[in-house]
Each structure stands twice: as C-alpha cells, then as structure tokens.
C-alpha cells in the first residue's frame, strides 16, 4: 500500500465519519451519499446486491438508501418515508431505535464496550438469568454469539457433544443459516448446492409431516446413522410463514423422546413474540431440549444470538468451559440491548400486541386474497409473521415493487417472489396496518389496470367491500 493510498483512506474515512455525525443531510449531500453508496456496493461489496435490490430499480434516478427510523416507519436519505413491513426479517420487533434499548446501550458504552475475556462481565450473567426465566421447559444455560447462524452452529455442537452422535434431521425448505453447519440443515438447494459437500449425516423430510420424521428416525437406527437431534423452525419463516398442523410439534416431541434424540427449536425468527406467543413452540406447549434465538434479541439495536439448553445437556460445556468460546459474542453492549429488549417486550405487552394485530392483519389479507383469487393462492402465518402466496413470481414482484413505490417495504427473496413475507415491527399501529392494506389494494388495482390495458388475462377486480372500507383508514 502506497503512502498516497493511505492518505486517501485517511481523507475518505474522515468524510464518512462526518456523514455519521450529521443528523440530516442537504439535498446535494444526500445525492452524493446515494451515488457513493451505490458505487461502493458495486465496486467493493457485491455488485449482485445492487442488481437484485428492487429499491434501486423503483426509486427513479437515485437508489433508496436508508437513513433513519422510529417505530414502524423509516426515512431514506432523500427524506421519503416508508412503512416497514419487512422489519429486518424479524430484527425490528421493537421497531426502529427503541429509546429504552438505545439508552441501555449508550449507558453501557460509557463504562465498558467489550469484556476483558478474563474477568466476569456482569451483563452476560444477567442476560443468561433472564433467558432462563422466560424460556420453556427446564432450559437454564445460555451461550451468546453474534448472529442466528452462529446460534444454530452452537446448538448443533452441544447436541453432538452431549449425545456423542453426529446426525441431524431437518425440514425441506427450512432455513437455519448459511455458515457450513447451519447450511447443512437449511433445506433449499439454491443455498446448499454451491457449497457442497456439507456436513454429512443430514436428512431432510417434509415440514409438518411427523410420520416422515418417525420413518427417518427408524431407518437411521436400523442402518446405524446415529441421530443427535431433530432441528426445526416452529413456523417456517423463509419458506413463507408456513404453519404446521396442530398435532405436529407434540408428536415430534414424543418421537424424539422415544428414539432418544434431542429436539432443537430454531427460534431465531419466531422467538420473542413474533408469532403472538413469546416462543413459537408455545403455540403447542412443547418444550425443546435446545433453543436458539437471535434477530429480535438485540432489540433492533445490537447484533446478538444465543443457544440455550437444560443443565443436563449443558454439563458437557460446564465440564470444559473453553470448549466453545467467542471473543465478541455476548459483549456488554449486545447484552445491554438484549436485557432492554426483553424488558420492553414484557413491559409493553408486545406478545399480546402481535397476536391481536396479526389476527386483524391476516383476516383482512384473506379478504383481499379472496377478492383477488387470480393473484393470490393463500395467506399463511401466525401473529405478525405472515406469508402472501401469489400465483407466480412475476405478480409477487409487481406487488412488492408497487408497494415500495407507495411507501411500503415488504420482503422479496432472491430466488422466489411467489411467496412474500409481511413481518413488521410488533409496535406497528392499527392505523399503519390499515394504511398498508389500502396501499396493497391500490397496488393490485394498478396491476389490474395495466394488464387489462395490454390485453393480458389478469382481470380487474372490485375495490374493498363496504364492510372492509369501514374498518380501514385511507
């Protein structure tokens, strides 16, 4: 590296820091930031990311670059406001920049941002205690990491250490992360195939089919493929908010006990109130042996993940506390955020809010879907983890981009727009839900108008019924 290059880095870093410290930007500054961000992503991060993001294609001359947010709304750097129905794929349960979480992190920042690694840091113990109080069954011990995929990796490791077995059963279309171990569990070829071979002794079965798990466990025992654990999302998130039959989780718990394998609930996305229960497994009163958490655990402010288990299982860690470590996992800033996130979730009754708002949202989405059966095939989900299922990818993309033009951000996926999640902050107001429903209806009407004008088969369908109109605020 030349001295000129280092001098440039010094000057560029200072200019970037100046942006960080500015509460808002003028028009020319904002335009510079948009152009710089697009260029930086294209040249130094991932050019495919720029090509994929619908915000770039739909925002006109300038890409949409996020800037600030509060509650369930955020603004881009040009000042346009959006209702957030994506919620960072489950990160923003508490909304953007919840003041209690921000305050906890700021207070801890003034004391010690990172631990010594040698002494005992109090917040790690506090958070572990809180999680023991709110997790199902006899789960008591926790280990903290920086993300959901790390939490799944840790859950796999402790399961293998405890059982002295190496195999796992997971679900088709399930999602558990993209590092090598968790990717082995993930049930989508588009993510798995490029990285093959992955962890061996992994078996995938259809989600919601307990008999398939029973059959796989029996086969594994017969041929000697020792299974350490069954790993499942309570409700499949990335697959499109897929809810299993009501007898599924109790039956899987029974099967795991009968075959002496562990049950791991991947609650990275479903945990901490997202589905209208504190934990997704609470819908079926099932206690897993190991549970993972992340996303919302950091209160939308700090990244943190955790895997947790009962004392019996955790004994393999207690006997050798250095068999699994992380330099920055469970740092004081992240733990402060998580402690505040748990406090806010309970204090503001966000679990109950998610259940009530989710029931309302799903009811009206099903009404819209019924009126537009040429566009929709289904609405699925629980609480505020909702899946919109469209007849094809093209329509799903048009709905997502049309809503974005109207100031509503919902999720699209790189490989499939046929199923698009609605996953807003749990603090979203009823008025904001009504606004989203109206903008969705307007998007559908626009789509019908466009296709009818070109002679396409997609017909126009009537606007909201009078009964529905009376409940929805424009």
UniProtKB/TrEMBL annotation:
Share an example GO biological-process annotation for this protein: putrescine catabolic process
Q: Which cofactor does it need?
A: pyridoxal 5'-phosphate
**Cited Pfam families:** Aminotran_3
| Database matches in Gene3D superfamilies | Aspartate Aminotransferase, domain 1 (3.90.1150.10), Type I PLP-dependent aspartate aminotransferase-like (Major domain) (3.40.640.10)
Q: Where are the transmembrane segments?
A: none
Give the molecular function GO annotations: identical protein binding; putrescine--2-oxoglutarate transaminase activity; pyridoxal phosphate binding
Say yes or no: keyword Protease present: no
Q: Which UniProt keywords apply?
A: Aminotransferase, Pyridoxal phosphate, Transferase
Sorted alphabetically, which CDD domains does this protein's record hold?
OAT_like
Q: Which domain of life is it from?
A: Bacteria
Which N-terminal residues, if any, form the signal peptide?
none
* UniProt-listed NCBIfam families: PRK11522.1 (NF008570)
Alphabetical list of PANTHER family matching this protein: AMINOTRANSFERASE CLASS III (PTHR11986), PUTRESCINE AMINOTRANSFERASE (PTHR11986:SF112)
The UniProt family comment states: Belongs to the class-III pyridoxal-phosphate-dependent aminotransferase family.
Protein name, as recorded: Putrescine aminotransferase
Q: Give the originating organism.
A: Dictyobacter alpinus
